Amino acid sequence: MGLMETPKDERPRERLLKHGPSVLSDAELLAVLLGTGTLGQSVLDLSRALLKEGWVGLSRRTPAELLSVRGLGAAKVATLAAALEIGYRVEQGQQLRVQNPHDAIRLLADMRDRDQEEFRVILLNTKGFVLGIETLFRGGLDRVEVFPREVFRSAVARSAASIVVAHNHPSGDPQPSRQDRELTRLLESAGELMGIPVLDHVIVGRSRHMSLHLGELTELS
Q: What is the pTM for the complete model shown?
């Protein structure tokens, strides 16, 4: 039976909206993403064919490979690739947890090689798992202008329970300047008002980083 012959309340999209996504099979979930099949092939048949090697196998196929599949046009491939990437990012984020400055620096180590200052925010849930890492501002060799409103706009949008902020010193020396300390106090005060505490401000150098919360330098591994 094709999808159009299936009673409306038994179709994947309608069942998802009524009962939630957990009641759907893998093929039905994929069918919701794809929307339609092709002449002589229902969307469920197309989904089953794509999932012969499971989600992992499907995720390994490039957009170019998917475009060669009969029934998959650019719009469907883009939707599918985006959904798989979202799933990957959620999985990665839930596996990352920040419990101390050393956890944070491991997520920010690539900043040591930047030739201009960047300001990032690590967004955390109530248990310290990473919701996302965003680069909010970029500056020059020795300065980046930071707007606290934008820092917390991002945190509110992602429903973050707390944040860690960080920036790099392209000079390689992570010793904080007076402006760095003033910014830290400003963000901490704003975080208290917003109910989104700033757990730390990390400054990344070439081989060391500074935790302004702990007030200590640590070697980068």
A: 0.58
